């Protein structure tokens, strides 16, 4: 297969590129990425040594550029990871989320219609279902849970999902959608909870926990997400949505304490910060469908995955130090001074 992977210079997309090159060495992977603040060519340095891999810099919302690429490559499949992905940034500036996540998706879908495709896969998120209450641990998101979004980010992702489903129903485009819970692992951009806490703790900086720290996320090791998408694009049924999650629910405060414990740092580094606006309380995925239909099960327990992740950040300090040395400092200062966090990473 010849697969265009959009957003392959970001966190999950790059892990997927490496997963595919290893699992299907006969396949060709073409990464289309605009290299926004979240995209990083250093992440793809090893992939670029592989003749089966090509990197193309470009914006998924640029119709002419996308059509030119499809005409040249004639892909069999598209896996769309490209997105603005950070909820806090969407609260500050929603528009770019609509531009990339909605308009960008519509351009890719049009290209698939125009040039023909065996499979278009949309990488979506559990956030499209909204949140669950903390006092109902019996409730989980299934594929039939109504969409009920909270942030500009989740609105943009839900809108894109609806568009993908419309192209299936209206134009019979062979699509699939996956909605995954929170990922963690190598190459996770430092603005997100787990890498931010590891990096701040390593620098003895305060760890900004929003609100009471009791919000719950359902953590999945990124390689398990990649394995699920690989199965869906090859064996998933056209037009279907598959939820992906590993029943690894943790309160934020517990995740942060686990990281401090792994690094041998004191809990006094924790600082309670002003809560995120509209903060979703709990996410929890029911992955029964993907298990029953495709035999997928997560392979990495949270206890092991978090150890591997902490080790990765310890061993790849150049990777994240390059990132946090530039515009990230300004982002961190702006975002966290608004949240009344006084000590921030230098
Ligand atoms: P990320 O922010 O780390 O990476 C996004 C990538 O997309 C970057 O390489 C960036 O340069 C690229 N990009 C952004 N705008 C683009 C554009 N207009 N054209 C081309 N490329 C562009 O994101 P991530 O955490 O790896 O998330 C990847 C996908 O998975 C997203 O669609 C996200 O909604 C979804 N998702 C993420 C998680 C998670 O926990 N991180 C969980 C479920 C679903
Ligand atoms: O559920 C899937 C989603 O997971 C993806 O769709 C998003 O792209 C991805 O960013 C992630 O969204 P979250 O908002 O859950 O992830 P984030 O790492 O930003 O925050 C995780 C939790 O930690 C959330 O409850 C907010 C909290 N938090 C986050 C940061 C950055 C803090 O308490 N302090 C922080 O500094």
Task: Considering the chains and any ligands shown, give keywords for the structure.
globular; 12 helices; binds 2'deoxy-thymidine-5'-diphospho-alpha-D-glucose; binds nicotinamide-adenine-dinucleotide; Rossmann fold; alpha/beta; 346 residues; two-stranded parallel sheet
Q: Give the termini separation.
A: 45 Å
Overall pLDDT, averaged? 97
| Percent in helix | 40-55%
In the predicted model, the low-confidence regions spanning at least 5 consecutive residues are: none
Radius of gyration (CA) equals 19 Å
Overview of the molecule:
This protein has helices at 11-23, 63-73, 87-92, 95-115, 152-171, 193-202, 222-235, 252-263, 288-294, 302-315, 317-324, 327-338; strands at 2-6, 28-33, 53-57, 77-80, 119-125, 175-180, 183-184, 207-210, 216-218, 220-221, 241-244, 249-251, 270-273. It has 346 residues and is α/β, with parallel strands linked by helices. It has a domain at 2-184 and 221-246 and 280-299 and 327-336: NAD(P)-binding Rossmann-like Domain (Rossmann fold, 3-Layer(aba) Sandwich). The protein has a seven-stranded parallel sheet, sandwiched between helices. A two-stranded parallel sheet has the order 7-10. A two-stranded parallel sheet has the order 8-13. α2 (63-73) runs parallel beside α4, α4 (95-115) runs parallel beside α5 and α6 packs parallel to α8 (252-263). The longest helix is centred in the N-terminal third of the chain and has 21 residues, at 95-115. The protein is globular and about 55 Å long. The mean pLDDT is 97.
